[in-house]
Design goal:
single chain; 158 residues; mainly alpha; three-stranded parallel β-sheet; 6 helices; 9% strand
Length: 158
């Protein structure tokens, strides 16, 4: 994440990764305040065995794009509402990467962070059958909750 305050949003990703027992690291790496750390972190990502990076950032949101430019590890960007524009500025910054350096862009805020983790799990599950089983089970459980909450059709007009 770009700053410690982003953790309020990014903890949704942490919760999902913990649920699936996916090893991860949560770090504050700022494109603006710690650029050398960002260069070093992204440059070493593939060699350290990272298979996906979830980068959350608000405002100018340079972190996801800069990391993507420095590594071949897939980067998922999460816009964080950190300015008066409530994350719309970050969304546009992340989603508008130039051709050739993609960043998967998720929704603004905690929903985007949770979905980034679920997308990372799905990516990892393509080569991990046990993880794939847990993902299938979670999706079935989510479906079952929705079906259980459905209102019965009484046939009467509301």
């Amino acid at each position: 994440m770009g700053s410690r305050s982003d953790y309020a949003v990014m903890k949704a990703a942490v919760a999902i990764l913990r649920e699936f027992e996916v090893p991860f690291e949560a770090r504050v790496v700022s494109a603006h305040r710690t650029p050398q750390l960002m260069f070093d972190y992204a440059g070493a990502a593939a060699g350290r065995g990272l298979r996906c990076i979830i980068a959350g950032a608000g405002g100018a949101a340079h972190l996801p794009g800069m990391i993507a430019a420095l590594t071949v590890v897939p980067v998922l960007g999460v816009p964080v509402a950190a300015t008066a524009l409530q994350g719309f500025d970050a969304l546009l910054s992340i989603v508008q990467m130039p051709k050739g350096v993609p960043v998967g862009t998720l929704a603004i805020g905690a929903s985007g962070a949770a979905n980034a983790a679920l997308l990372a799990v799905a990516m990892l599950a393509t080569t991990d059958p046990k993880l794939q089983e847990r993902l299938i089970a979670r999706r079935a459980a989510t479906r079952d909750v929705v079906l259980a909450e459905m209102l019965p059709d009484t046939g009467a007009d509301a």
